[in-house]
Amino acid sequence: MTVNDAVAKRISKLLKEKEMSQYRLEQESGIQHGSMQCIMNGRNKTVTLSTVMMLARGFHMPLTEFLDDEIFGLENLEIEQ
After folding, report:
1. Where are the alpha helices (DSSP H) in 1-81?
2. Which pLDDT score is estimated for 81?
3. For residue 3, which of 81, 62, 71, 63 has the smallest C-alpha distance?
4. Residue 78, Cβ neighbours under 10 Å: how many?
5. Digit-coded pLDDT (tens) for 23-58
6. Beta-carbon neighbour count of residue 54 at 10 Å?
7. Is 34 exposed, middle or buried (0-12, 13-18, 19+ CB in 10 A)?
8. Helix, strand, or coil (residue 28)
9. Which pairs count as long-range contacts for 47-52, CB under 8 Å and 24+ apart, including other chains?
10. What are the phi and psi torsion angles at 65 (to 5°)?
11. With contact defined as beta carbons under 8 Å apart, do 49 and 72 qualify?
12. Do residues 6 and 71 make contact, with C-beta atoms less than 8 angstroms apart?
């Protein structure tokens, strides 16, 4: 799984857990709708650290909490060299 895929799955999981809409996350994080759609649909191949930080802010959690999920385990991710 790519890092982008993992980020998209983490977003979906947190949206359900927090009973939050994607629109509200976009508003809270400052991420444009088109950019969010690219992440969620797998069209974005390079999610940056700043984007992940914005997502964490949108969920009102520290970055470490956003990344604290087994989906981000090295054994689950395809890391490009």
Report:
1. 3-17, 22-29, 33-40, 49-58, 63-67
2. 60
3. 71
4. 9
5. 999 999 999 999 999 999 988 878 999 999 999 999
6. 19
7. exposed
8. helix
9. 47/3, 47/4, 47/7, 51/7, 52/7
10. -70, -40
11. no
12. yes
Structure tokens at 71: 């989906």
- For the record, the structure tokens of 15 come out as 């949206």
User: Angle 56-74-19 (CA atoms, 0-180°, nearest 5)?
Assistant: 30
Alpha-carbon dihedral sign for residues 36, 73, 77, 16: negative
pTM for this structure?
0.91
How many angstroms separate the CA atoms of 33 and 43, rounded? 13
How many residues does this entry show for the chain? 81
Question: Strand, helix or coil at 33?
Answer: helix
Residue type, 47: V
Neighbours of 44 (CB within 10 A): 18
